Amino acid sequence: MSTTFHIRLASLAAKDNERFLAFVDSQLPWLESVGSGGQWGSTPRGNVEASQKKAFTRVQKSEACEGKPYSSYWGRAYVLEAEVDVDSLSDEVKQLSGPPNENGRVRVPVAGMVLESTSADYVRSILPEIDEKSPFLYLFFLASDRRTSSINKGSGAFLINHAKEEATRLGIRRIAGDCWTGNGRKLVQFYESQGFKSIEDFEAGDQKWPGTVFEMRI
Ligand SMILES: CC(C)(COP(=O)(O)OP(=O)(O)OC[C@H]1O[C@@H](n2cnc3c(N)ncnc32)[C@H](O)[C@@H]1OP(=O)(O)O)[C@@H](O)C(=O)NCCC(=O)NCCS
């Protein structure tokens, strides 16, 4: 049977905060190999206290906001799982999966996404913290687990589609976010392929990290 995707809310009990950092760390060698090492650097985040704290806070906020309407303190963190036949998996990916069901199918966490109602602080010259006239959901985090590349194809696109559904459910007509523009804007092209449009480029921090703010009206 083929792969099916399922989205669940992230939880501290499931250690999804740690999982999100593992997703980032799984991408670092790949990013380097395609010439995008400047996007996230080469330091694994799993053991960095500031990264652990940030991931914990995002998942904690998501749990606190469950069932709450959109507000200036709104956030949701999601985990995308791929359901596959356990026999189709390599030993490495089997170790990342949950227990098999009676049909020999397992769920493997393959990607994560965080949405919030305020923009990132380093894009405020382009996008206000909150725009009351044209409110948005801000895509704070999107990453797949490179270790699961045999089954995660399309996971980012699937989660972005879920962001659109979530926005519609909340009565919000706009999704915004930012990404790195280096390496020939390959990542920007991915977001454009998903329906986003770049609004304006920026350089963040002392290192002048090159980025763009993008948005999609729905
Ligand atoms: C973004 C992401 C979740 C999309 O997952 P997906 O829907 O399964 O799509 P793919 O992984 O197949 O990526 C689509 C295309 O974008 C490219 N791409 C994705 N992330 C990229 C990046 N950071 N830098 C350069 N190219 C990237 C892929 O190489 C692929 O190109 P191809 O179509 O020529 O093969 C996943 O690619 C990912 O986690 N990338 C690394 C982390 C990242 O950059 N996250 C976004 C932060 S703003």
Number of domains: 1
Tell me the quaternary state. single chain
Q: What bound compounds does this protein have? A: coenzyme A
Strand order of the largest sheet: 1-2-3-4-5-7-6
Main structural class:
alpha+beta
Uncertain regions: pLDDT < 50 for 5+ in a row?
A: none
Question: Features of this protein?
Answer:
single chain, 218 residues, alpha+beta, Aminopeptidase, seven-stranded mixed beta sheet, 6 helices, 7 strands, globular, binds coenzyme A
Summarize the entry for a quick read.
InterPro entries: Acyl_CoA_acyltransferase (IPR016181). The protein is of the alpha+beta class and 218 residues long. The protein contains six helices and seven strands; from the N terminus they run βαααβαββαβαββ.
